[in-house]
Write a structure and sequence with these properties.
This protein is α+β, with helices and mostly antiparallel strands. Helices cover about 30% and strands about 30% of the residues. A hairpin with a 7-residue loop joins strand 1 and strand 2.
Amino acid sequence: MRACPSAGRKTLAGFTLVELAVTITIIAILAAVAIPGFQGFQRAAKLESAVQIVESTLGEGFSFARSHPKQFQVRGVAETNEIETQICDLEENCDDGRIISLGAGVKLDDDFAVRFSPPFGDASLWEEENEIEEIAKEISLSIGDRQAMLTLFTDSGLVTRFPPGTEEGDENNPNNDENES
C-alpha cells in the first residue's frame, strides 16, 4: 500500500493493482490445495457413515431374531445406495419393510441378502429365494475411489470390518489407510 502525494490535498491510501493480484493469486493457490483434501475427507466421512448404517442394521436383525419369533431380512442391491429390511413370520408372510439410505454418492458394490432366524439369530444368505451355503459374506461399499469391506459370518451373525485372513496392519486390507496414496 502506498500513499498518493498531492499538492495541498489529503493523501489517499489504497492497494495497488499488483498487490490485489498477488493476494488473489495466493488465495486461489491455497484453495486449489485445500479443496481436494476437504472433498476426500467428506467422502471418507460419508463412507464411514454408510458402513455404520449397514453394521447397525445387521446387528438389529440379529438382535430382533433372538428376541422375537420372526425372521428379519436385510437386502442390498449392487450399484444402489439403499438397503431394505423386512420382518417376516415363520410362514414367510412379510411386512412392507423399510428402505434405509446409505447416503448420497455411496453405493453397494455387490448384491447381498441375509435372513436372521429365531430363536438364536442364525444368519443365512440367500439369493432369489434359494439359501446359499457360505460361512461368510463380504459386503463392499464404495464412494469415488474409497472402498470399505464388511464381513458377515453366518454361523455367529458377527459383522467385522476386515475380510477373513487379513489383519488391521495387513497391506491387503482395503480398510488400511496406509494403502492410500
